[in-house]
Each structure stands twice: as C-alpha cells, then as structure tokens.
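Our consortium's second objective concerns turning raw sequence data into structural hypotheses that experimental partners can test. To show how far this objective has progressed, the report includes one record in full. It was chosen at random from the queue rather than selected for favorable results. The single chain below, 235 residues long, was entered without modification.
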Amino acid sequence: GWSLLGWLACLSMDFSVLLEPLGFVKVFEWIFAIFAFATCGSFHGEVTLLVSCEGVINKTVTAAFTYPFRLNTAEFSAPDPKSCAGTWTDVHLMGDFSSSAQFFVTLAALSFLYCIAALVVYIGYNQVYQQNSKLPLTDFSVSVLAAFLWLVSTLVWAKTLADIKKSTGADIIPGIEACKAPGTTCHFVSVTKMGILNVSVVFGFLNVASWGGNIWLVYEDTKLHNQWNRISEST
C-alpha cells in the first residue's frame, strides 16, 4: 500500500497529458457527464387542461412534474373552490418513471466523479500510471463497465422519455374520470416542451461513444496489451 507521503512524493504535475488522446477523451467524458446530469436532472414541466363544468367555464388547470418523473404524484389543480359541485375528484397523471431517470442521472454523477479522479492521476501521477500495471487495468475495467452501463441506461432512458411524452400528451383526456362527469368537458391545452430531455439522450449516446473509445485508448496508450501478454506468460 501507498502512504500519503508516498503519494505526495510521486506527485508531478504534467498538464500536457490533457493534449494526449487518453487525457483529452477523459475531459470530454467529464463534460458529457455534466451535461447528461444537468439536462435530465434539472427538468421542470407542466401539463395544462381547459375545463368547463357546473358553474365554471373554460378554467385552466395544471399539473406540474419534474425529475425524477413520478408522474403519479403530479396532481391537477381544481377548476374552482367548489371542485365543480363535487364532481372534480383528485386527478393525477399516470406513471412512475423514476427508476430509469435516477439510473441515468446517478451514472452521470458517478462518471463525473471518476473522471475527476482519473484526471488527477493522469496529470499528477502519469509516470506511476504508465509503470503500474494495476492502474491501467483498473482504468480499462471501469471504461468497459461504464460504456456498457451508459449504453443500457441511455436506451432505457430513451424508451422512458417516449413513455413520459405519451403520459403527458393529449391522450390522457380519456383516462381522467372527472372529465367524464355530466356537464364537464376537458380539452388538452399544452405540455412543456421536452427538447432538453431529448438533448439528455444525445449526451447519453455521446457518453457511450466516448467511453467506448476510451477502452481502446487505455489499451493502446498504456501498452496494456503488452502487460496482458506478460501476465499470460507468467501464468
């Protein structure tokens, strides 16, 4: 094991590593992780309906939703204080999409933290990294795992986003019981545009590509294939 003094003694700052493919790609992974996290985790939206019922004409009601997209907790406001003479009961959006959204955002946060740690090693301990067989192997293993998890989480999140759009679109009207009450009509008005969530999917696939490329860079730039040959020969 290495003591703190040992690590400090080996510290040698070399920012030129950032101009090499291994460091350059790691910076992009760090940036892509930030944008994936921000575009998905910061979303706020609302669905608006136009309601007419007993004593009320053309009143807008809204249901606000946000990350992590537990839509079943988003409730439409009542059209009036008397709730349409008692015909307007609690009305919620349908669906809980939190698991896939949180998986995507958590992976982005973990990738962000790992990129910082890796950049510290690349910049401050590049000589140690190149000479130590365990560090490149660890970096390679993390890159393989990250590329796989980004692919899975992005595909799942893309499918979930399509479901979220469906669950907040005009098709929700037939499923609202309060809108079926005698004398009550509901019309879909609008839902917040989700372009930023589309962007989060794009950054998810950019993470897949960058981490996939990182696998090859770690393998090549650190001469990992030579290390593996030596390991196989020794065994």
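The partners drew two points from this record. The mean pLDDT is 87. The chain has seven helices and three strands. Both points have been shared with the crystallography group to help prioritize constructs.
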